[in-house]
Specification:
Distance between the termini: 46 Å
Bound molecules: adenosine-5'-diphosphate, magnesium ion
CATH class of the largest domain: Alpha Beta
Number of helices: 13
Number of strands: 10
Mean pLDDT: 94
Shape: globular
CATH architecture of the largest domain: 3-Layer(aba) Sandwich
Oligomer: single chain
Amino acid sequence: MICFKDLSFTYKGEKAPALSEINLTVEDGGFLGIIGPAGAGKTTLARAITGMIPHHYTGDFYGSVAVNGLDTVDTSIDEISRMVGMVFQDVESQIISPLVEDEILYGLENFGVPREEIPQRMAEALQKVGIADLQERSIASLSGGQRQKVAIASIIALKPQVLVLDEPTGELDPRSSRQIFSLLKELNEEQGITVILIEQKIMLLCEFAKQLAVVSGGKIIRQGNTRDVLAHADELQALGVNCPRVTTLSRMLSEKTGAAQPVCINLEEAEKMVRRLIG
Ligand SMILES: Nc1ncnc2c1ncn2[C@@H]1O[C@H](COP(=O)(O)OP(=O)(O)O)[C@@H](O)[C@H]1O
Ligand SMILES: [Mg+2]
């Protein structure tokens, strides 16, 4: 479980807090989507989970963050990284090896995974992300999207209990993005891995995340079940967060028909609603 209690954080040398009074709990096996405009504090939130804040990024830190009951202030980044795997927004700063297989190997060796297990773990991670054919390639020869997939594979290979992904599909086309989201769903449902996903692709996010947190100006302005959060579409729109079109559609139909329609969060639901209204 991840638990933020009244966390406020101001980066050293900055005046304004990047996060203010964050209270957030992510249960084991949860799938939380985090949305919000640029500069809202989403990446800062992720850094606070992994302990990079306050261990690596220093500043004024109030309140607490606990990972599996361990206070991140008292726990080393190393120890936290055995529970929480993070895919950085800036993939270039995450990848350190010249070759794809070395990148995957590096983490596995660091974690002391037995030698005989390594080939299997590597093959499985590459295959799950759909890049088995890239194993022997040099990182320099890869596209941005392929690098993003390597970063994801290198973290998945470590089998963390909690996965934090900071805009992991920014460089990916819609098909690859969906493939990554499906993989996260599989890891979440079949292996019980907790997923915390910061994402701009809200339509996809709403389809996959069980919970949403909306961040703006360093605060969580709304959190809850995906559907309940989407019911506040006006609020999201005002922040510049676009709602999925199916959600907008259900809202417009509520207004036009004068009867409250349920908030739709995927195409299937929208289709059902439209059929019911026509019928
Ligand atoms: N390393 C840093 N040092 C100082 N300020 C930072 C640093 N990283 C982020 N910030 C500031 O913290 C605020 C939140 O940034 P960030 O968490 O990156 O937002 P988001 O990921 O939602 O775009 C912004 O005002 C940003 O300028
Ligand atoms: Mg960010």
